[in-house]
Structures are given as structure tokens and as C-alpha cells.
Design a protein that fits this description.
about 350 residues; 6-stranded parallel beta sheet; alpha/beta; 11 strands
């Protein structure tokens, strides 16, 4: 395999090192900025054969990608929040999409369905059972319940809590908390298949989670690996939680089968290998020709897909240098040097 640079949220990137790549470099960041080709070569320490731009749930941070001389992949995780992502993805050779029901959104005039790959969430390798921890709560929810940012979640948990005194709602290190709940409760504020599903199961928990779609039913068997309820239906969730609490042997069984299924198919290493296999197939089909064809249509991609989002971001971001970068990128004049716009 070739040299790969991964920029953005890490996700399963660390597991790529075990998948046969010649060299893998990672770059994450927190400060508001953008990167062009020269920046990426500099942070990688080599000229990459593949660049992966991984969702950070912020404005586009790699510009000029439509004209990059290597294979390019966008990894969209928060498409349920960011409507601009399918437009941005048109500038890439391939795309990973976390939410299966959004695959069609990413298919467009410059990115065909065959190069859009479903890559569901996963459990991290560190998500493991903690049998030394005693069960303290009948039902446990771990996560943000701020009514300002999570109004549906806050209302749902408040309703469940009124009828279920054994519900414990908290925030913190879920790896230390999940093993202490007999039943683990999940809620998906925006209807996405979130990482909490896989993290809870990876910790060996008996999970009660909404049936949100996005391929959940293809990944797990309801009643075998987890227990589903109608989204936002507190009554349905309560019925299933009580049913489980009255059957501790069933709770243990579901937790064990969940862990076995995650270990077999749904950890970071599985997503890394599946991605590598897809990219190998793409490489065999002619990586240089694919990148060359993208570069020939770079102007059309900017005109049809990138210019409007970039112009909107130029108005939205407060930093003057970023405003200039987005304006330059919309014109195809982003040089990428140290995050600054290129010369016209």
C-alpha cells in the first residue's frame, strides 16, 4: 500500500497502521484554520498518495482539494447536522458516510454512488467490560442533557425519570460508568445512529436504544444484541426497561451477545480494514486516472458545488484570514501556504 495522511478527527485512523500501509501520518488540530496542499505535505512529512479529510463538525478546513494530485477521501459523520457536507464531498474521489440513510444525499454530479461507502460508527478498542465494578443503578444514561442544546433528550429523560426512580443520568467517563448500570439507555437527539450505541455494547452493556434506522437493523438483532424502542416514546422505552429489569438473566445474555458481536465486527480495527480494502479496490481501478479526471473538472466542481458554501462561510467566520481563504477558494485561488489564500 501507499502513503496516507489523515487530517481531522482521529476516528479509526490509529488502526490503519495495522492494515498494510507503507506510511500513515495523522494531524488533528483545535485552532480555527484551513489547510491547502502545501500545508498537508508539510504536516505529513511526505507527499501523500491518499488524503483523508475526517469530519470535525466545523467549517471545511481543507481547501483546494478538488485540484489535489492524489486520491482524496472525505469522511462524513455529522451529515445530520451539516447540510453542506454532500456538496463539499463532490470535490473528492471517494467518501465514507457514517449514516446509511444519508448515502443518497452524497451522490451527486461529481461523486457517483459506487465511490460512496457506508462506514458505521464503532466501539473503540478501549471500550471493554469492567467486571470488578459493581452494579449501582437500575438504568443509566451518560451524556449531555442540556435543555438548550438537547431539548428532546432532556424532555425524554425527564419523562422516563418520573416513572423510573432507578434512572441515573450523569456525564463523565463512560468507560467507568457503563459497567455500573444494569440497563444502559440511549437517546439520539437528531435521529442519528450515534457512537454511544457501539460504546455501550463494547463495554458489555445491555442497551436500550431508539430504532433510528441508518442501518441499525442490519448491524444488530433487536432482542438479541440490544433492545429497541420507538424514538422519543418514553412509554415504550419504560416498558422495555422494566421488562429487562425483571429478567436479570436476559440482561446478562444481551450484554454478552452484544459484546461478542462488537468484538467480531464493530471495533475500530474492523472499520480501518474495510476502508483499506475499499481503497485498494479503488486503487486497482486506476488511482492516477481518477485523480486526473477530478482535476480536469475542478472548475466545474467549484462553480456547481463549492462556491456557495465557501461564500457563506466567508460571511460566517470571524477571522479575517479565514474569510479571505474561503473567498480565494471559491475562485480557485487558494494556495494553501500556512493557511493563507494564494495569490490571484
Amino acid at each position: 500500500m501507499q502513503r496516507l495522511l489523515w487530517i481531522g478527527s482521529p476516528f479509526f485512523s490509529a488502526s490503519l497502521k495495522d492494515c498494510g500501509w507503507q506510511e500513515v501520518a495523522f494531524h488533528n488540530f483545535e485552532e480555527p484554520r484551513v489547510y491547502g496542499w502545501d500545508d498537508l505535505v508539510r504536516v505529513a512529512g511526505f507527499v501523500p498518495d491518499v488524503v483523508v479529510v475526517a469530519d470535525k463538525s466545523r467549517a471545511p478546513f481543507v481547501l483546494g482539494v478538488e485540484d489535489f494530485p492524489c486520491l482524496t477521501v472525505f469522511y462524513g459523520v455529522d451529515s445530520h447536522i451539516h447540510s453542506w457536507e454532500p456538496l463539499y464531498a463532490q470535490a473528492f474521489d471517494a467518501c465514507l458516510v457514517s449514516l446509511e440513510d444519508h448515502l443518497e444525499r452524497f451522490a451527486g454530479p461529481y461523486l457517483e454512488p459506487g465511490r460512496i461507502w457506508w462506514s458505521p460508527p464503532f466501539a473503540w478498542e478501549q471500550d471493554q467490560p469492567r467486571p470488578e465494578l459493581a452494579k449501582e443503578w437500575d438504568c443509566l444514561f451518560v451524556g449531555n442533557v442540556d435543555p438548550e442544546t438537547m431539548p428532546r433528550r432532556a424532555a425524554f429523560l425527564a419523562e422516563v425519570g418520573k416513572a423510573l426512580p432507578g434512572l441515573h443520568v450523569t456525564r463523565g467517563d463512560y468507560r467507568a460508568l457503563f459497567p455500573r448500570g444494569r440497563v444502559l439507555l440511549n437517546q439520539c437527539e437528531r435521529g442519528d445512529l450515534n457512537f454511544r450505541v457501539f460504546e455501550a455494547m463494547g463495554c458489555g452493556g445491555c442497551l436500550v436504544t431508539p430504532r433510528v434506522g441508518h442501518g441499525l437493523e442490519k448491524l444488530f438483532v433487536d432482542g438479541e444484541h440490544l433492545v429497541g424502542y420507538a424514538p422519543d416514546d418514553a412509554g415504550d422505552a419504560l416498558y422495555r426497561i422494566r421488562f429487562l429489569l425483571e429478567r436479570p438473566d436476559l440482561v446478562s445474555y444481551i450484554g454478552e451477545t452484544a459484546l461478542a458481536e462488537v468484538n467480531a465486527k464493530h471495533r475500530a480495527r474492523h472499520r480501518a480494514q474495510a476502508f483499506t480494502d475499499k481503497l485498494c479496490d479503488l486503487w486497482m481501478q486506476g488511482a492516477e486516472e481518477l485523480a486526473a479526471a477530478r482535476r480536469k473538472r475542478a472548475g466545474a466542481v467549484r462553480r456547481d458545488c463549492l462556491s456557495v458554501p465557501y461564500l457563506l462561510w466567508a460571511q460566517e467566520v470571524p477571522q479575517e484570514e479565514l474569510k479571505e481563504a474561503y473567498l480565494a477558494a471559491a475562485r480557485g485561488q487558494f494556495g494553501g501556504g500556512a493557511g493563507q489564500p494564494g495569490k490571484p
